[in-house]
Amino acid sequence: MKDETGAKEKVNEKGLKKRWFVVSAIVLVLILISVGGEIYFTGEVVWEEEVTKDITPLRAVAVQWTSYSYEEDGEFKGITYEVFDLAMSRLGVEYEFELVPLSRALKMAEAGEADVVVSGTYTPEREAYIMFTPGQRAYGVGGVKPAAYLNLIEGAFIVRTVLKDSFIFESIDQIAHEGYRIGVSQEYAYTPAIRNANWNKVSHVTEQESMKALENGEIDMFLTYKEVGLAIRDEMGLHDDISIALGPAPFEEHQFILFSKNSDYPNLVELQALTDKELIKIHASGEYKEIHDKYVKE
User: Fold this and answer.
1) pTM of the model
2) What is the pLDDT of residues 71-115, one digit of tens each?
3) What is the CATH number of the domain that holds 34?
4) Which residue of 44, 95, 146, 247 could cross-link 58, Cys pair, CB 3.0 to 4.6 Å?
5) Are 262 and 133 contained in the same domain?
6) Do residues 188 and 227 both lie within one domain?
7) Residue 4 maps to a domain
8) DSSP of 232-287
9) pLDDT 10s digits, 125-137
């Protein structure tokens, strides 16, 4: 899948020779259970395996993020990509993978041009075109930890090294009280607490713009994902000038695979449920940690 921007496309090579799971018969077993006067149910979807060449590959788009999803020497790499690839491989799902800016990825999902956005969060505005699960919605609205998720990413304040010892992050209210100018990304959803914080926020399109503003003294610090901020610092040759602020992480963010409501991919609701089950297994087995540690050196 290519577009006018020259974004590169890559079809999962393993998936090209895989047997494809399609639904020729779906058996939905609803088990009703009465607990404390309330009725609950669990569902089990049974897929029949069949070989077919007529099904279009799943169209997956992701944002290019250092350590998480990027292309190197013609190969896709990163934590996000490897976890997604592992889940799709186990489900026998053939896919196409493309790196685009987040705003474009969301527009593609909204238009039905992409079936999934690989790595994103809940916002009320996305409800119109993203199939959020109850767990994703509960996390986005109230911070309830989800059972199934793609990534868990730690946030960090990036500061000039000369000011590192004079600022120790303690709380969200501290930032507002002391009047710091905080650089934020236009494309990040952040957590509800961060979105609602009464800060003096300065918005930038990219982290590189925030890093330049920090270097020039236009902001006091900027908020991003820890690994991303450090990688961009090193790419811009600012290793000695820029540091991570002291104190606890200002936020931790669970990210999800976002499935489009406007996709014409067959049985996408069932695929979403099966993908969540695989993500739970990948985290519980320790495979996620192995992938994470390969890219992120603490």
Assistant:
1) 0.71
2) 999 999 999 999 999 999 999 999 999 999 888 999 999 999 999
3) 3.40.190.10
4) 95
5) yes
6) yes
7) no
8) HHHHTT-TTTEEEPBSS-S-EEEEEEEEBTT---TTHHHHHHHHHHHHHHHHHTTH
9) 999 999 999 999 9
